[in-house]
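tool_call predict_complex ligand=2-phosphoglycolic acid
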Amino acid sequence: MTKIKSVSAIEILDSRGRPTLLVTCRLVDGTVGRASVPSGASTGGAEALELRDNDPARYGGYGCLKAMGHVNNDINVHIAGSNFETQADLDHALIELDGTPNKSRLGANAILGVSLAFARTVAIQQNIELYQYFAGLSGQSATLPRPMINLFSGGIHGGQQTAIQDIQLVVPNVDTVQRTLEVISDVYRAAAKRASERYDMRLLTADEGGLAPPFQSSTDMFVEAVASIEDAGYTPDEDVVLTVDVAASHFYEGSKYHIDGEILDSDAMTDRIAEWCEQFPVISVEDGLADTDWDAWQGLYKQIGDDTMVLGDDLLCTNPERIQRAIDTRSANSLLLKVNQIGTLTEALRAYQLAREAGWQVVVSARSGETEDDWLADLATGVAGDYIKVGSITQSERLAKYNRLLVLENETDLTLASG
Ligand code: PGA
Ligand code: ZN
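tool_result ok
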């Protein structure tokens, strides 16, 4: 019996020092579970609405008191005393109560907090690990996801010194999370040394803990990443490969890409991406084009999609309708899964299933605003995500997820997804 006694929320702070929600779910049998909600900065236009107070007198308008109130009042009144047999039953009740297409009445932050807190509470009640609960929901046999780890940031995450947003590293041929982190740590240290020598400055880190030196161009970020891999004693392409989050929607204006002083049309931007993929060991390109530039995505897919992940974040927004469109038009071949883009676990899992049915790869992703909660590691493991994207190996809101993967690696028989 998963009869809910109450749900309640408080405002806590995320890694940017902005409020977010921590939701507590209590069952009638006394089981209690909690979960907190992440928040993006480079958000997609089609994301579910994160409800903020917009009261400039509190947290610069980022307060979450309205969303908190919706959990404590509307949602609690509606679901307390009810018995929900499944996650989908609860999530559908929340979607219906909200009644809007983008969760703008109650707020996706309020709804997701309840959805996640319920998941954690039921896992506790059933005396199973959270990843096992998620594996049950997804029908997958759990696997540890391969980390895709942030090295450099520009764009909205870095301070706009370059147009593109993030360069990540993947260690393709090792078979543990532990060894992955050792290798990445070596490269991170080499990159930090290079950057401090080259720019003669104290290093600044970006929203996801990556390095954000004043690169002269986006291409420079790739060059420096490859040089850092070499400095650390590894062979680029063999030992360590790159992924890039171009986050192109955020420098797309008037149907043109404004990149590091140049103005490119969609074809030229596509060619630029293809050049990066030729010159550097890039296995995945996320949001290479803007989330409204659908036709151009087909061209990008044709140019690089045979041997590169064409990964949709802002393009897809974890939204089943947008994913279906991308499948039908052959515009992408990989899904970035962020549950707060859609607002409930059930809808995120529907997005996941669609992507899998199309033979896509799946990257389970954190947001640039995170908390110390580690449910994302369990989600990525439970749905057998190919990759997990959490940010750098600095900052505890990132490490909470990597460290949880280390616990799972050490305490279970789970193995790492193939790279
Ligand atoms: P966000 O960035 O959380 O700021 O949206 C992450 C990403 O773009 O992948
Ligand atoms: Zn992205």
